[in-house]
């Protein structure tokens, strides 16, 4: 994906009056760029073209990850639970694991996951049998927020599906804090 972005960056810079560094920065800051307004895509500004190229690659990767997770193949998070992939764990019990995000979007950005996926690839797949683990994830978010010193507030986010910008198909919560959050979030 980086090569594709660099190629798009070079071709856009050659054909536009936009400074190359600002073009590249605007593309790479938000790797999750599903546009809400179809008219923006029709304008085809340099950033929009690059975003649609990166968005297309991202969507292909996400679709592949979703298919693999739904087939029962281990996800990135399964590999973190089994310690095949290292992480900075901040909380663990018999049901959940919480670790620092490798690409934090706030001073405190913790990912909280169920250790056993049990079919929970995304929130929209939740069933009655998942009630206990879903509640436990929320209580864990409160415990970790307190542990991290987020006394003035925090945000809990669950991305669901392609339009929700979900990239790992293993249900997870994002615990964000340490700065003033804005509204609306998207």
From TrEMBL:
InterPro entries: Histidine_triad_CS, Histidine_triad_HIT, HIT-like, HIT-like_sf
SUPFAM superfamilies membership: HIT-like
Name of the protein in its database record: HIT domain-containing protein
PROSITE patterns per UniProt: HIT_1, HIT_2
Protein species of origin: Sphagnum troendelagicum
PANTHER family per record: HISTIDINE TRIAD HIT PROTEIN (PTHR23089)
Short motif Histidine triad motif, span: 170-174
One Pfam family, short name: HIT
Domain HIT: 76-186
């Amino acid at each position: 994906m980086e090569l594709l972005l660099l190629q798009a960056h070079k071709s856009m810079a050659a054909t536009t009056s936009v400074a190359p560094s600002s073009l590249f920065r605007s593309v790479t800051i938000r790797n999750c760029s599903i546009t809400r307004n179809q008219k923006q895509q029709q304008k085809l500004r340099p950033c929009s073209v690059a975003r649609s190229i990166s968005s297309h690659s991202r969507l292909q990767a996400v679709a592949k990850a979703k298919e693999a997770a739904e087939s029962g193949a281990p996800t990135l998070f399964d590999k973190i639970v089994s310690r095949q992939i290292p992480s900075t764990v901040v909380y663990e019990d018999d049901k959940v694991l919480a670790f620092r995000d490798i690409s934090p979007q706030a001073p405190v950005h913790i990912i909280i996951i169920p250790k056993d996926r049990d079919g929970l690839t995304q929130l929209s797949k939740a069933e009655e049998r998942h009630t206990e683990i879903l509640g436990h994830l929320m209580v864990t978010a409160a415990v970790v927020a307190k542990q991290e010193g987020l006394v003035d507030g925090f945000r809990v986010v669950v991305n669901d599906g392609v339009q929700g910008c979900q990239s790992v198909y293993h249900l997870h919560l994002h615990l964000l804090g340490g700065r003033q959050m804005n509204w609306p979030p998207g």
